[in-house]
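Record type: monomer structure entry
Structure origin: computed from sequence
Chain ID: A
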Amino acid sequence: MSQYVIGVDIGTTSTKAVLFQTDGTVMSSAYDYYPLIKEKPAFAEQELTDIYQAVVKTIKTVVTQTSTLAEEIAAVSFSSAMHSLILIDQEDQPLTRSITWADNRAHQCAERIKATTGTEIYQRTGTPIHPMSPLCKISWFKEEEPELFRQTKKFIGVKEYVFHQLFGEYAVDYSVASSTGLFNIHTLNWDELALQEAGITINQLPIAYSPTKQLSGLKMDVAAELGLLPTTPFVLGGSDGCLSNLGVGAVDSKSVAITIGTSAAVRMVTNKPYLDEDQRTFCYVLDENHYVVGGAINNGGVIMDWAKKQFFHAESAFGKLEEYSKMMELINTVPTGSEGLLFHPYLNGERAPLWQGEARGSFFGLHLMHENKHMLRAVLEGICLNIYDVLCEIIEQAGKPDKIIATGGFSQSEVWRQLLTDVVQQEMYVPESFESSCLGASVIALKSVGLVDDIHAIKEMIGAEHRHYPNPQNSAVYQEIFPFYRKLSRQFSGNFDELSQLQQKITPKNRVLK
């Protein structure tokens, strides 16, 4: 009898499930989308019922699409977005929506922690002090919403919420736990200093387990709705970032994975933790023997969407994909370096390399000769230079990789792929498959149920790759630009808080983002 595994990725704006054969072949996939709720400028939340229903719907769809028998499913495993926070009351009911990584309400708490216990907490947890982390968000509730804080029995994330709905247990994997800012990556347990800073006890957090931990015992009605047996193992899996690396085969320090979607990230898997004295990079646990060192970036594809809206006034007859393709063709007509126009893409605040929630973007070097097409190319180059900035920080700590693997929605653009290759000045490989987080989760499942011995088995499951080579002339231009770009970035960073306060002061209170 054939055997299959299902990888589920609970993302920021969608959940997807993929049914794989045990050799990594995709049999079926399903997506379900939900909105990001921004009731206030600094808020970014999601409805829990939307997320849970998306998980149920996508699992059910991939099973029924292929008429797969319930007994053929060896396991279901999960990836999820990091840094989410949900407050749960004494009756196991949510007191809040899911507060996502993009929520910036805890900025002042983050600055306070950074100035006091931040360095020591970072050295213990591997998570830079930033408003994204549940550590800072919990501190915000303690200070700003004391009544909600007092009512809270558990502080959990989206994956823990889903598992509690399915099995009635609060369980989290080491990978997701280590992105909370509350988990000690050296002892693989909740960190006492971080808990003290947050004002909570270990009993208010889920139990942390290995990513291969299995839960089973689905309720009969839930199992029937999903098309699974009640005894089907559900494997905890890991975080989307760690599993994305695993899913493209970047499972050792010889490889770096760059992911560009709405946001972006640069990550390297190592066999020991690397911690940066300047706290510029994170270090998360993948499993008991592997760590993921890198930096997450707020400003990826979302910034190109903004630039397209502002500077590329396409004919309405174009479809969305065709419009994007036309814009990239226009960008490709502009000389490398945008004739001296630089763009720092910090429109959405920034995590790596600055870790400043109040960061702001800028064009630098504007001249009368610059047109809309220069603005577009400068934005694209700025995103890529920012990614390269993070890559350089990782190389400083863990050494230069032999291979760079890039994934994400950006990879559909030949222009963007080549531009990034030129910026990083190294060969770049782009896998044909876009299901890296789900595949990574599935490999964790295969290991959990004994169908593979080690996560390195992933290398036999990855399909074809496109290879890109840097253009020496273009790379020479970026090599000259990058030190200046980086210097400006650090100079600007000392003014972001003051600028943010000024913007808040002079911006109308009823201003709505469009």
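Annotation 1: The first strand starts at residue 4 and ends at 10.
Annotation 2: Residues 372-398 form the longest helix (27 residues).
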